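Checklist before submission:
- one chain only
- standard amino acids only
- sequence pasted in full

Submission:
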Amino acid sequence: NTGGILLENSDMEIRNANFVNNEAGLELYNSTAVIENTHFASTTEEVIEAYDGSTILVASSTITDTLDADAIGIYDSTLTIAGTTIDHVHDGDAIGAYDSVVSIASSTIKNIDDGDAVALYNSTSTITNTTIQNGSGDGVAIYGGTATIDSSTISGFTEGAGVLVADPVAPVAITNTVI
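Returned file contents:
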């Protein structure tokens, strides 16, 4: 069980890698990371966390069995996710974004216990062609900020809302989406 990778004022590309049974995956401070075809499994803290203007691209990857933390936590940073699956997050959000920019496309987020699938706090987000399903919290929770959800499916949130909206700075746009 290791602490993963810490980046400070650096750039990194991770491709075709496996992070298994780690305490954490990747932590960034004012850094850039490209993650492709990578599998993260059984992580006991955030799999990916970014701070202070970091930029992260996660493509064609999987994140499974995150315990006691968000799978991805973004703080004043930019996150782009494409063709990626996040499955089984226990006691955290699949994606928690704070004062950040988030783009999620052609991905699947499912099976979130005791957290939201996507929690957006004063963030700008676009979710397109994505399936978000099964959890005990909200599918997409928007607190402040702006959001666009298009051509997606959000279902199976037994104790929360499919989409929760509170105090957005602009109207939330939901089109061609099944909730």
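Reviewer check: The two ends are 39 Å apart (CA to CA).
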